[in-house]
Predict the 3D structure of the following.
Amino acid sequence: MISFFDEQAVEYEIIVVMDGCDDGTDKIVLRMAEYHDRLIPLSYPRKLGKGGALIKGFQHARGEYLVMLDADNPIPSVDLFRLIREAEDCGLVIGSRYVDDSKIVVGEPVLRIILSRVFNLLVRLMFRELREIKDTQCGVKVLKRETLKRICEKLFITDYVFDVNLIYSTIRSGFDVKEVGVTWRHDRELSKIRGLLKVSIRMLLSLIRLRIYYSRFKPILEFKLIRRLLGSLYRRF
């Protein structure tokens, strides 16, 4: 990826957020950063969650376009550059595995596909404005700096539902969201989610929390009892 962006003769930075790494990834990235000044490693001792890690990355990013990309780099660099160009005339571009012009080179395991489609159905049922979005969870998105400034205080989900938080907050703030097909390659070794059942329950809880946040019942989220109950459920799962 670094060589590809160097060839495009554009200004860029690559921020790698590592939270609670125990497999030596942080050492590898730190060593690479010694040879690539555009590579910025951010290391945290505890797990932040997908959303928590992305929020930390946002806080350190300096560019006009902020690209969110899974660590297993599931799409070709040329697709990534295409999504950045698509973001010129909208607030947020989301890569998609399920629109007509997408292409799956290596697919996900059947169980993950089923859970993904069930999750997408729940999102469509709970959030009317997202009924046309086919793939909220694809691991590549491009966000404009202008959009981030408007929605940053509304990004509070730190797990995998962060993607829904991001997309929905962008739409509710008046920005256009564009879904663009990508060529997708699932890495079965690097892209693993431990404890799918617990993760799924936690995602459901986060969806409910996000739905309440954007409703007339938002004040109940400030009640100590509700906050303790949600905190207890999150810790359990």
